[in-house]
């Protein structure tokens, strides 16, 4: 596998002040840098999990997905794999600008900038204390108008493994660290790429509940409240974030798979697949 985990995402927003406020309070992230039109927010000692920008000449939404390269792979290896697949990429090594030691960047077939990096910036002294303790940026779920081609690219070129499917409409993809999914692809023919949600993994269930209390106190709308997924086994909740349409999930007990031996399952699309607590018809 080329990549080990999701490192950070980039989002273009209508109002940078509002988005920073949301991710600092309800999102429980720490603002580590801000300049004209951009802000970097992170947690757990990592400089950024979310990079916000306000560019009125671009549509709002997902601008970048950045993945940390597997420790056993070099960026030369990544460039070679991408070149063999016909992907034109840019090699960069500008830490002051990019806040990663080195990376390659390219655009996927759905128009999203993809980065494969090594050496994400850290925060000296660790993160400032928040009410909810977060462990990692876990995954992002995105729609794809070219689902089959996207699935082929992310598995055959990027080397992600399939953990599970929900029918032929959703694919949960894992990287080499074995988290059940670092990327979720959702079939949406005729629609442009969009981020459905981003997920932060908390250190404990109590931290999920602490985050939920902050979200409710701040008055943000809950999208899904305390559900447990059949696929990953995680328990958590979602609230409506920014930009509009992006959900923010906090979860705990997210499952692990063995990347070498895992065989994907296929679930029927039911309420129980999304939330095992939902009773089937007749109960």
TrEMBL record:
It comes from the Bacteria. Pfam families: Glyoxalase (PF00903). Residues 5-119, 136-253 form the VOC domain. This is VOC family protein. It comes from Nocardia jiangxiensis. The lineage of its organism: Bacteria, Bacillati, Actinomycetota, Actinomycetes, Mycobacteriales.
């Amino acid at each position: 596998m080329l990549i080990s985990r999701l490192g950070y995402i980039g989002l273009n927003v209508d109002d940078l002040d509002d988005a920073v406020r949301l991710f600092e309070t309800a999102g429980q992230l720490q603002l580590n840098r801000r300049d004209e039109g951009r802000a970097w927010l992170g947690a757990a000692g990592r400089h950024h999990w979310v990079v916000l920008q306000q560019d009125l000449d671009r549509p709002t939404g997902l601008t970048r997905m950045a993945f940390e390269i597997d420790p056993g792979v070099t960026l030369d290896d990544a460039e070679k794999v991408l070149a063999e697949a016909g992907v034109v990429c840019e090699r960069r090594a500008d830490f002051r600008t990019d806040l990663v030691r080195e990376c390659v960047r390219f655009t996927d077939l759905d128009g999203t900038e993809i980065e494969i990096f090594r050496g994400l910036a850290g925060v000296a002294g660790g993160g400032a204390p928040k009410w909810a303790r977060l462990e990692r940026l876990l995954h992002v779920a995105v729609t794809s108008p070219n689902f089959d081609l996207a699935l082929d690219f992310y598995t055959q070129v990027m080397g992600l493994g399939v953990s599970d499917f929900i029918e032929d409409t959703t694919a949960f993809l894992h990287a080499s660290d074995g988290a059940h999914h670092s990327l979720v692809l959702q079939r949406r023919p005729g629609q442009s790429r969009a981020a459905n949600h981003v997920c932060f993994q908390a250190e404990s269930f109590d931290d999920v509940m602490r985050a939920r209390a902050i979200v409710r106190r701040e008055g943000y709308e809950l999208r899904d409240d305390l559900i447990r997924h059949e696929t990953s086994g995680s328990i958590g909740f979602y609230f409506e974030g920014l930009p509009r349409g992006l959900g923010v999930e906090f979860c705990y007990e997210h499952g692990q798979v063995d990347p070498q031996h895992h065989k994907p399952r296929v679930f029927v699309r039911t309420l129980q697949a999304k939330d095992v607590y939902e009773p089937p018809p007749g109960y």
